[in-house]
Amino acid sequence: MPSVVIRFKDQIQRLTVRRGLGFQALCAEHETPIEFDCREADCGICIMHVVKGMEHLSPAVGEEKDFLKAMHADADERLACQCRIMGDVEVLIDEA
Fold first, then answer.
1. Is residue 14 over pLDDT 70?
2. DSSP collapsed to 3 states, 15-75
3. CB neighbours of 33 closer than 8 A, spacing ≥ 6?
4. What CATH code would you report for 3-93?
5. Which candidate among 10, 65, 77, 79 keeps its CA 20 to 30 Å from the CA of 44?
6. Are strands 77-79 and 47-52 parallel, antiparallel or unpaired?
7. pLDDT tens digits for range 18-73
């Protein structure tokens, strides 16, 4: 089962999840610092930096890919609302 490390401020949260679980479902089951609003790759509130394991997330496609391109996102940025976890990942959540 994949592990997910979420870094926020000086906090580190470690979770073990079922392969293929999306961050939306993960955050519904556990209290995390990841915020969601539109949940459809339209607002960007759930943007996160992938510190390790980008290759273990589902690829960015469709609306997420278009949104990240339009926002000139860094190569390490993804929208949590669109990601499925396929292996070990570590993400950093910026302060709002």
1. yes
2. EECCCCEEHHHHHHHCCCCCCCCCCCCCCCCCEEEEEECHHHECCCCHHHHHHHHHCCCCC
3. 6, 8, 9, 11, 13, 93
4. 3.10.20.30
5. 10
6. antiparallel
7. 999 999 999 999 999 999 999 999 999 999 999 999 999 999 999 999 999 999 99
Residue keyed to tokens 């278009």? 66
Q: How far apart are CA 94 and CA 91, in angstroms?
A: 10
The residue extents of the domains of the chain are 3-93
How many residues does this entry show for the chain? 96
Q: What is the C-alpha to C-alpha distance for residues 9 and 73, in angstroms, rounded to an integer?
A: 21
Q: What is the pTM of this model?
A: 0.94
